């Protein structure tokens, strides 16, 4: 069992303790403050950023919905065998009574794109692997952004990659300029003493 699988299992178990996060009929489900307090508690227990945990939970929930859809359609592997049950399907069964399986009213083209996404191998559907470095929250953030981006059509993936790279290059240049200014200031001070 990998660390990331254990981490996801812990996240699922923590969310299960807070029905307000997944039960749309819960009296406080629409109260953002209540839900945020729950996420803060989960964040403290797991030692991760709330926003990253929320995104990961959304990915898990979407993956469950996708697995249920495959099961309902009777999707089979290339070898003709029924698809395996998604690894977290049993663990997330507490969510099932609160999920709505949306009926598709899409065009044939949109359906085929969704079907193509659903047929990706399990390896491609793997979620982020948390690292053990000091930059865990940054790693988790970019890994979750990556997973969300992978779900988009290639056209949008390319737009996102370009925009992220543009921002990164601009900020690096800004940082380099600031570092140069600081170095110049230090040099000037040393020259005047």
UniProtKB/TrEMBL annotation:
Coiled coil: none annotated. Residues 10-100 form the MADF domain. One of its GO terms (molecular function) is DNA binding. Keywords: Nucleus. It comes from the Eukaryota. GO terms for biological process: regulation of transcription by RNA polymerase II. Residues 135-174 form the BESS domain. GO terms for cellular component: nucleus; transcription regulator complex. InterPro entries: BESS_motif, MADF-dom, TF_Adf1. It is found in: Nucleus. PANTHER family: COREPRESSOR OF PANGOLIN, ISOFORM A-RELATED (PTHR12243:SF67), MADF DOMAIN TRANSCRIPTION FACTOR (PTHR12243). This is Transcription factor Adf-1-like. It comes from Papilio xuthus. The lineage of its organism: Eukaryota, Metazoa, Ecdysozoa, Arthropoda, Hexapoda. The gene is LOC106125606.
